[in-house]
Every structure is written in C-alpha cells, then in structure tokens.
C-alpha cells in the first residue's frame, strides 16, 4: 500500500492552484474548492485521496513486474520526470512524443534495434571501415535516436500503464493509450478533461514544485511495489529451498524403512527354499528307512 498523502505538504507545494476561471473545463467542477482572484482553487482533500488511489494501483502494477511509461514533454517537467522515472527503473518520454509510439510499437522497436546495431558496429570495428561522411551520418542518426528513444530502450513490449503530466499537451499519447485500452494515470489541471483518464490526480501541472511533489510520490509508490515483488520472490525461493531440503532429509529414512520390511518376492523365495529343504529331508529319511528294512530282511 502506498504511503499516506499529507494535505499540508500538497498545500506547501502549490498543488491547489488551478487555471484562470475563464479557461476551466466544467467536468473538473467536482474537484474545485473555490475561486479566488480569478483563479480556481483545487480541493486538496480530493487530490490527496486520488493520489493515494493512484499510488496503490501503480504499486500493484509494479509488483506484477510490468512497466509504467512516464510522459512529460513540457519544459518544467522534463528533468523531474526523467529523474523520478530512473529512480523507479521505468521508461519515460521527455522529448517529442513519437507518433505511433504505442499503436505502431513494432516500428518503434525497429528504431531502437537500429540504435543497438550502431553500437555493435562501433564495438566490432565495422564503423571504422566507413568513410568520414558516412561515420558522421551514422553518429547523427545515433544521437537523434538516443535523444528520442534512448529512455525506452529497455521497453521490449507495450507498457501496462501510462503516467502523464498535462493531458491537454499530451493528447496524442492519451489517444493512443485509449485505443489500446492501456490504463492512464495523469496530473489533471482545471483546464483539462478528467474523463480522458482512468486515474486522475487533480493538481497544478504547471509549477515545477507541484509536479515534483506528485511525480516523486508516484515514483515512491512504484519503488514500493518493486520491493514487494523482490521480497515475495526471495520468500518463494526460501520456501522452495526449505521444501527441497525437507524432501532430501526424508529420502534416506524412507529407504531404510523399506529395507527393513521384506518384500513379497523375498518372502515367496524364502518359502520355496524352505519347502525344497523339507522335500530333500523327507526323501533322505525315506531312503534310510528302505535301506534299514532291506537289512532286516536279509
């Protein structure tokens, strides 16, 4: 379970500041507390509850071993999201969203593989055999791919969820995730439509302090889920090891007990041997009796 969210901390970070009242989205009305100086104020108690809900859901996804893709291309969010995503060992997009990133994932994977093939060329010496112009072109291509796709190089399949900062700006990413039924977690300001996402966090998505507070909480929830997964794996390994050792300990004892109890075949063989012995003794006694009677007659 994710950590409890303190309303005071959200207040200090300025999470409650919304957009100008003339730029609001009516669907955000349930999450707006009041209006002050022409600006909407977000209800932080509802924000805290939604953050807790989103944190619990993300922790479960992380515990299952699946990936969560962070998306934030706005200037004030780039560094924060990159840092927190790396802390949680999750892929992220902080440059331009590549069209078809999710809906045409196969092509994106080819571009990532192209980057890996360039790295192999540099290692095996093929790169040095190219002309100076070709080397420059390859370097430029590698730099471009690294800038746009370097952060998702380890994402071998579609993510299990998307975490977005500013749904209005990242509308293409939202549409692609909706087409593929990928759950969307997002920071939603008063000018955005909350119906587009599955888990919304009503919050100020423009101030870096507010973004930092929400994204760090999300990253901590994911880290918690990953540590839970690791502890479960360790516990399972210990259980398997103990079970194996128990079986090995019982095996010699069972063998010994088996050796002590004679088998049916062994009993039959023993009975046959004794029967043959009795037959031999009987025939021997009969021979002796015959010899004795013949002596008496003579």
Automatic annotation (TrEMBL):
Q: Where is the composition biased (Basic and acidic residues)?
A: 228-251, 257-298
User: What molecular function terms (GO) are annotated for this protein?
Assistant: structural constituent of ribosome
Q: Which CDD domains match?
A: RPS2
**UniProt keyword terms in alphabetical order:** Ribonucleoprotein, Ribosomal protein
Q: Which parts of the sequence are annotated with region: Disordered? A: 228-298
Going by the entry's taxonomy, the superkingdom of the source organism is recorded as Bacteria
Might you name a Gene Ontology BP term for this protein? translation
SUPFAM superfamilies in the cross-refs: Ribosomal protein S2
Kindly give the Pfam families that the UniProt entry links to this protein. Ribosomal_S2 (PF00318)
- List the record's Gene Ontology CC terms alphabetically: cytosolic small ribosomal subunit
Q: Which family does it belong to?
A: Belongs to the universal ribosomal protein uS2 family.
Question: What protein does this entry describe?
Answer: Small ribosomal subunit protein uS2
This chain's source organism reads Christiangramia lutea
Q: Identify the gene encoding this protein.
A: rpsB
């Amino acid at each position: 379970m994710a950590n409890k969210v303190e309303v005071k901390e959200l207040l200090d970070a300025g999470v409650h500041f919304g957009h100008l009242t003339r730029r609001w989205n009516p669907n955000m009305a349930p999450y707006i507390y009041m209006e002050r100086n022409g600006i909407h104020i977000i209800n932080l108690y509802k924000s805290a509850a939604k953050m807790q809900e989103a944190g619990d859901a993300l922790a479960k996804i992380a515990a299952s071993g699946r990936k969560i893709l962070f998306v934030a291309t706005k200037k004030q969010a780039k560094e924060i999201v990159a840092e927190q995503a790396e802390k949680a060992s999750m892929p992220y997009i902080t440059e331009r969203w590549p069209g078809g990133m999710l809906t045409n994932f196969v092509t994106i994977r080819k571009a990532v593989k192209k980057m890996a093939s360039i790295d192999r060329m540099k290692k095996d010496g093929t790169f040095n055999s190219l002309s100076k112009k070709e080397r420059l072109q390859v370097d430029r291509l590698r730099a471009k791919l690294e800038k746009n796709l370097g952060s998702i190089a380890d994402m071998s399949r579609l993510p299990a969820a998307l975490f977005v900062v500013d749904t209005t700006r990242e509308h293409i990413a939202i549409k692609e995730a909706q087409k593929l039924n990928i759950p969307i977690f997002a920071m939603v300001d008063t000018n955005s439509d909350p119906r587009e996402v599955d888990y919304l966090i009503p919050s100020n998505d423009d101030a870096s302090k507010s973004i930092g507070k929400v994204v760090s909480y999300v990253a901590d929830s994911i880290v918690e889920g990953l540590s839970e997964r690791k502890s479960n794996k360790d516990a399972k390994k210990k259980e398997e090891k103990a079970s194996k050792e128990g079986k090995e300990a019982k095996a010699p004892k069972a063998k010994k007990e088996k050796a002590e109890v004679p088998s049916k075949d062994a009993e039959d063989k023993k009975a046959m041997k004794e029967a043959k012995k009795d037959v031999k003794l009987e025939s021997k006694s009969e021979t002796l009796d015959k010899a004795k009677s013949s002596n008496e007659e003579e």
